[in-house]
Amino acid sequence: MEKGPQTFANHTQIDPPFHYFVAVVFTLNVLIAAGYFIYSFFSGRWGLIVFHGWLLIFALALLVAVTRIRVYPIRVQDRVIRLEERLRLMSILKEPLRSRIGEIQDTQLIGLRFAPDEELPGLVQRALDEKLSRTDIKKSIVKWRADNSPRV
To answer: What are the angstrom distances between the C-alpha of 107 and each of 24, 38, 54, 64, 119?
Structure first.
């Protein structure tokens, strides 16, 4: 759990096993494979060039796979957030703002998730009128509504 209240400054999280181990290992693997490929290329030995070229391609494929495997759940999480926020907006907003929910961009919905119910109508109005970005919306929140769900 978090040490203090969640705010704009501390709401993003690093996943140490992924960011400091997995990502580093797979990136180093690509760099090492590239080094061997370059070395074999300048050695002029075609057998080594082909072998190390294949290792480089394989290392790149692994890095792309690990990255995509990490990104897909985050995209699903964003879709769930959009659905939750649209339902929340339907229950909180009054007309004419309620009829404008469809105008709110997906990234704005993701930013609005941290706004408490009492700040939501004003922020929605500003987001629509001023075309606020996700970051601008988050910075505009006075009383942060923490998301204490486990991180993907």
So the answer is: 29, 42, 39, 25, 18
- Hey, what are 44's tokens? 């002029």
Sequence-distant contacts of 9-14: CB under 8 A, at least 24 apart = 11/114, 11/138, 11/144, 11/146, 11/147, 13/151
Indicate if 32 and 68 belong to the same structural domain.
Answer: yes
Distance CA 133, CA 85 (A): 16
Whole-model pTM?
Answer: 0.69
> How would residue 108 be classed by pLDDT, with cut points 50, 70 and 90?
very high
Considering 77, 104, 127, which residue would you say is the last residue of a domain?
A: 77
CB neighbours of 66 closer than 8 A, spacing ≥ 6?
Answer: 22, 23, 26
Residues of the domain holding 73? 14-77
Structure token pair of residue 3 = 């040490």
pLDDT per position as a tens digit, 4-18: 677 777 677 788 899
Q: How confident is the model at residue 151 (pLDDT cuts 50, 70, 90)?
A: low
Distance between CA atoms of residues 4 and 117, nearest Å: 21
Residues 27, 66 share a domain:
yes
Could you give the 3-state DSSP secondary structure of residue 52?
Answer: helix
